[in-house]
Amino acid sequence: MLLTTWVLIAPAAAASLGSNAIDLQQPLASRLLPSKIPFLGFGTWNIDPSNASEAVSAALQAGYRHLDCATAYGNQKEVGRGIADGLKKAAVKRSDIWITSKLWNDHHDPSLVEEALDQTLFDLGLDYLDLWLMHWPVGNSLATGESELNYIDTWHAMEKLHKTDKVRKIGVSNFSPAQLKDIIDKSNTKPAVHQFEIHPYLPQSKWIEYHHKLGIAVTAYSPFANTNPTYTPVQGDPPLLLKNTDLLAVAAVRQCTAAQVALVWGWNHSDSVIPKSSQVSHIKENFGALNCHLEKEDLERIDGISKQYLKRFNNPSKDYGVKLFDGLEDA
């Protein structure tokens, strides 16, 4: 487990010192990481366009100051309207929030990269992104349309845009150890952030520790694991994470919900987590994790879950026809 000298102070304890929930969204300087990302974000994956605007606006009004978006989610125009509405109703400025988006596979060719960024900015109604990630190390060949491992030239094109006022940080998502090393060795700009799947069924502790040694921040997606309905159940799957008996036991003792416990574990384990929900009640419940205090023994108990259940839920290797996550847990 990653309990080091820079582990976050428990939000409830910080609140007792007079901080409010929005203040607690500001990351602690003691983390010594290059990207100051609010550690609790709001994800927009699989939020239907029909209510994406409402959900994003509700998240900003609830206090979230970190939004995670992507071209591939097919809802960025609606998310953009939600951002505008939420900023107005929450009385906050664009500079007060962190917005991430991602480059999709069909624009990996260097000639298409800036076009993709411009379209994202237009759809979201923004002048700049705080962070732009390469969604996968996989691009579609212009010649055949087939998926192929293709990321170095794409990264170099992203590096050029990093020097403009359109994007402040660049990073990657879903890379393997060899691919991350490759990009560092062959480029001038190290990824500021790596976003990948992390939850108690897939803790990836050594992989996270490796990033911290390099000074790369880690964002955890799918913090509720197989509770996400996107992941089709298969025989042998562990129980739904939010029904896991260890998680529920900790939640009962600490008077939190299972979702809140999973989130507190997540941001103590990585650097930021991005739960998503389209329901206002769940959006508020997740934000309430800032008032959920876990002790060291709670975190250690949750760490032990992966000894019984180890499962990666997002692995499109077969769909893409390439090997992904080589060298990582449950690849």
Distance between the termini: 20 Å
Order the strands across the largest sheet as they lie in space: 1-2-3-4-7-8-9-10
Return the string of H and E elements: HEHEHEHEEEHEHEHEHHEHHHH
Strand residue content: 5-15%
How does the overall form come out from the CA principal axes?
globular
- Helix amount, in percent? 25-40%
| Largest sheet entry | 8 strands, parallel
Overall structural class, as computed from helix and strand content, comes to: alpha/beta
- Alpha plus pi helix count: 13
Mean pLDDT: 90
Write the layout of secondary structure elements.
Elements: H1 11-16, E1 42-43, H2 49-62, E2 66-68, H3 76-90, E3 98-103, H4 110-124, E4 131-134, E5 138-140, E6 147-149, H5 152-162, E7 170-173, H6 177-185, E8 193-197, H7 205-214, E9 217-221, H8 245-254, H9 258-269, E10 272-273, H10 280-287, H11 296-303, H12 305-308, H13 317-320
Parallel strand pairs: 1-2, 2-3, 3-4, 4-7, 7-8, 8-9, 9-10
Antiparallel strand pairs: 5-6
Helix pairs in contact: 2-3, 2-10, 3-4, 4-5, 8-9
